[in-house]
Amino acid sequence: MDFKSLVYKRRTIRKFNNKRIENQTLIELIDLARMAPSGSNMQPLKYVIVNEEESKNQLFDYIKWAGYLKGEGNPNKSERPTAYIVVLNDNHIRKKGYELEAGAAIQNILLGAVEKNIGCAWLGAINKNKIRTLLDIPKHLIIVSVIAIGYSAYDTKTEFENGSIRYYLDKKGTLHVPKRKLNDLIVLTKQHF
Hints:
This protein has helices at 3-9, 23-34, 53-60, 99-115, 128-135, 182-185; strands at 45-50, 83-90, 119-123, 141-150, 156-160, 168-169, 175-179. The protein is of the alpha+beta class.
C-alpha cells in the first residue's frame, strides 16, 4: 500500500472483533514509534503493552469513548480492544515539550497498524490517576495517551464535511467520518497574490 493510501485508510476504530493481536506485532508497532522525530534526539517516550485480560478489562473502564456517538459508539463486551499501548513520557529525560514527539510517535503506531490491517483508537479522554495505579506506573513517567488496538468490527467511510464534522454510524453500522475540504484548510496570505 502506498503512503497516501495508508493515510487515507487510517480511521479511529472504536469497535473490534475478538481476534488477538500477537505480542510481537505490538512490539513492532512500538519500534515504529521509536523511529519518530524527537527534539534534540532525547527520546523520552516509553510504552506499556496491556494485553492481559484482567488489566484490559479494568483499563477499559478508565476510558471515555466516542463522544458524538454516545452509547452506540462504545464497544460492548464482545467489541472491546484486544490490546492497548499506553504512551508515557519519562520526566527524568524531558520535563516539558514532549507532546509533539508523542504525536509523531503515536501517528507512526497508527499508520503501522493500518498497514497490518489493525484498527486503533488514539485516546486522550482517560483517567490517568486510575491508569497509573492499575499499571503501577512510577511517578516520573507521565501518562500521555492510550492507544486501543484490535481488528476492526466495522467499515469506515470518509466523506466531505457538509455543514457538520460529527462522525456517525449509519443503519448498516458503517462509521462515516466527515473531513473538511482541502481548499477550506489552505490559508492564502498577501504573499500569494
